[in-house]
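[step 3/7] inverse_fold.run input=structure_tokens len=273
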């Protein structure tokens, strides 16, 4: 019986391996096709201050698959990242992003538009040239653009990160550390990094109303951010009480379903004054 159980487990394991490998290969083929056919677009999720004023928005990539429908970036970004496809895809998407930034600049001043950079993109030697080329072509200013880079990407190779960030900020781009609190930042390095914003991870916001540890962590982060002159944003704010508590803890900006879900481009542009 025990042998039969092991045989069953092995056979289940073998087929799960095959399925996931098959799925991954299929996804990779689909990604290639989708890049060629340009099937990706951005939604824009607003960021607001405590009064609910629009401060900025984050571009979030979307893929409408011809058969599977909407595929989540949580599924395809890691595969694009591992295979390096993220570099050409990211270039193409940044061009689209800049066209929207242009419309935002023309309509309302002082709105900061955020674009997510993954690890491969961040360490790509042509990054700065690509970004500068796109902003020139669209006629927008780097000041209007914030690059969201995860804490784990930055901490992966801190010395290179400092060099790349210096170049980016020298040219006017703002930088936000995404998913902050999950990536084991060395606090000593935080001081060295030329960054503007700490974006506190949703995992600290989720349980904020029931968990004193999360409050203590957020409060430590905002104290440090204030001392270093950094702006703070909380992501994944779903209910009003969370926003109130976060405001009490001196968080500057809010993003989440409580205020806005990611919006189609036209719905986002319609919010501008
Ligand atoms: P992220 O940058 O941390 O983005 C936040 C994610 O949380 C988004 O999921 C957003 O839709 C979701 N979200 C926002 N507010 C709420 C809320 O109140 N409740 C809940 N439950 N979720 C909320 P999304 O769009 O699926 O993106 C997931 C991740 O994919 C992003 O995490 C980012 O790491 C990556 N990603 C998205 N777009 C791009 C892109 O253009 N380039 C790269 N490199 N990565 C991207
Ligand atoms: Mg982000
Ligand atoms: Mg985030
Ligand atoms: Mg996140």
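[step 3/7] decode complete -> sequence:
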């Amino acid at each position: 019986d025990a042998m039969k159980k092991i045989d069953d487990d092995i056979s289940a394991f073998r087929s799960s391996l095959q399925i996931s490998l098959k799925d991954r290969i299929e996804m990779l083929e689909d990604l290639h096709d989708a890049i060629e056919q340009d099937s990706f677009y951005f939604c824009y999720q607003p960021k607001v201050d405590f009064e609910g004023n629009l401060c900025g928005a984050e571009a979030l990539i979307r893929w409408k698959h011809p058969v599977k429908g909407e595929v989540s970036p949580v599924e395809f970004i890691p595969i694009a990242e591992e295979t390096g496809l993220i570099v050409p895809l990211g270039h193409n998407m940044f061009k689209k992003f800049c066209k929207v930034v242009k419309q935002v600049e023309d309509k309302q001043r002082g709105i900061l538009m955020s674009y997510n950079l993954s690890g491969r993109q961040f360490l790509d030697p042509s990054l700065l040239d690509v970004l500068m080329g796109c902003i020139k072509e669209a006629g927008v200013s780097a000041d209007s653009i914030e690059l969201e880079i995860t804490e784990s990407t930055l901490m992966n190779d801190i010395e290179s990160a400092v060099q790349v960030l210096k170049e980016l900020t020298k040219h006017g781009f703002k930088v936000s550390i995404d998913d902050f609190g999950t990536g084991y930042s060395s606090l000593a390095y935080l001081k060295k990094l030329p960054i503007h914003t700490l974006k506190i991870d949703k995992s600290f916001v989720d349980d904020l109303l029931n968990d004193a540890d999360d409050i203590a962590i957020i409060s430590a982060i905002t104290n440090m951010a204030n001392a270093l002159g950094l702006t703070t944003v909380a992501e994944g704010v779903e209910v009003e009480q969370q926003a109130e508590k976060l405001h009490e803890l001196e968080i500057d900006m809010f993003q989440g379903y409580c205020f806005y879900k990611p919006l189609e481009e036209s719905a986002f542009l319609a919010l501008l004054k």
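[step 4/7] annotate
The first helix runs from residue 2 to 37.
The beta strands are 40-48, 54-65, 69-71, 112-117, 145-150, 174-180, 197-200, 231-234, 253-254, 263-264.
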